[in-house]
Amino acid sequence: VCSGMQLPVAMHYYQPIWTLVGAGAKTVASSGRPTASVMPSGVKWVKAKVQEINPDTNTVCTDDGTEISYEYLIVALGLQLHFEKIKGLPEGFEHPKIGSNYSVETVGKTWKALQDFKEGNAVFSFPNTPVKCAGAPQKIMYLSDAYFRKTGKRSKANIIYNTSLPVLFGIKKYADSLWDIVKRRNLQINLRQNLIEVRADKQEAVFENLDKPGETTVFEYEMLHVTPPMGPSSVIKGGPLADEAGWLDVSKENLQHKRYPNVFGIGDCTNLPTAKTGAAVAAQSAVLHRTIRKVLKNEKPDKTYDGYTSCPLVTSYNTVILAEFDYNGQPLETFPINQAKERRIMYHMKADVMPHLYWHGLLRGLWGGPGPYRKMMHLGMK
Ligand code: UQ1
């Protein structure tokens, strides 16, 4: 009932054949399919938005005024983007030279800004909130660098990554590789810088220094990529299912709600203390399946989630660092090779294999993450 795995619908659905043969570029349209085409049979699909969940009466209210009661509830509401928390946005997107890969409405503007780029600063932001896909804000920087080099514009560009975080990446093993790359490619990293305002008419972006309250810096830009602040679904936040910060309060071991045992959660809407990614959802889906099967039989959940998450960091047109790690921030790599190295094979995994795992595996409940394959590939190793 509360499935948040809804995809943009008013789009084209079939992948042109050239995107299947490793030609590189893909269309925005190929990244979405209509919900109807991925709806499993035997499901009653309610075409309305969830407005309120009341776990004390086991009911869900939708925006068309319907009340639906449930015996068990799985909450998968995702998270919300908050462009409006940056002064000057979202209306600033009406000006050129600014884009964001986080919305289907603004991703094309990133590409336009790249193509139109002549000279100046290319500025990339990372907000001061939890985010989904924490690698994406810097992947677009690496791709921009590659594009500028290919088109002979690199010597005219200052590439600047302003992040709210005190680190380039949360897991040291991968951060070390990424620092090597940014030094080699002359990409400027500024830590603890948070985007608070965009003056799109003047092509200025204002950042606050999170370590020096009150200190702000204005960056002129020829191109700006915005990663918006994000937060919990307004359906959950402040309600009985939320933790203090507003996220769905579930057990980090088995995804069952901490106070309402007939409620479960998966994905970005939860307070699971791991990075919010599609790969994490895959691993969580296997645990959740097992937990619910047990609960339906009045047995205790047994399978536990280790926090597995993964981030294929695209570092150029044909290389990826495939970061994989768990709740403890320990690398948990699937393949018996050092995945902190930039690799072409991992690029093909990301670009040519992952979409099939997503559409045919994850959405059909057949892909529960790479855990079993990791164990197989590490047989006989420590
Ligand atoms: C994954 O399972 C997954 O879900 C389908 C992704 O898409 C969002 C991924 O990007 C990754 C990396 C995984 C993990 C899978 C393997 C084979 C390492």
UniProtKB/TrEMBL annotation:
Family matches, as SUPFAM superfamilies: FAD/NAD(P)-binding domain
Reactions catalysed, as given in the entry: ubiquinone-10 + hydrogen sulfide + sulfite + 2 H(+) = ubiquinol-10 + thiosulfate; ubiquinone-10 + hydrogen sulfide + glutathione + H(+) = S-sulfanylglutathione + ubiquinol-10; a quinone + hydrogen sulfide + glutathione + H(+) = S-sulfanylglutathione + a quinol
Chief place of localization: mitochondrion
UniProt GO BP: sulfide oxidation, using sulfide:quinone oxidoreductase
Entries under Gene3D superfamilies matching the protein: FAD/NAD(P)-binding domain
GO molecular function annotation: FAD binding; glutathione-dependent sulfide quinone oxidoreductase activity; quinone binding; sulfide:quinone oxidoreductase activity
Required cofactor(s): FAD
Keyword terms of this UniProt record: FAD, Flavoprotein, Mitochondrion, Oxidoreductase, Quinone, Transit peptide
Entry's localization field: Mitochondrion
GO terms for cellular component: mitochondrion
Enzyme Commission identifier(s): 1.8.5.8
Keyword Flavoprotein: yes
Known role: Catalyzes the oxidation of hydrogen sulfide with the help of a quinone, such as ubiquinone-10, giving rise to thiosulfate and ultimately to sulfane (molecular sulfur) atoms. Requires an additional electron acceptor; can use sulfite, sulfide or cyanide (in vitro). It is believed the in vivo electron acceptor is glutathione.
Membership in a protein family: Belongs to the SQRD family.
PANTHER family xrefs: SULFIDE:QUINONE OXIDOREDUCTASE, SULFIDE:QUINONE OXIDOREDUCTASE, MITOCHONDRIAL
UniProt-recorded name of the protein: Sulfide:quinone oxidoreductase, mitochondrial
Taxon lineage: Eukaryota, Metazoa, Chordata, Craniata, Vertebrata
Gene that specifies this protein: sqor
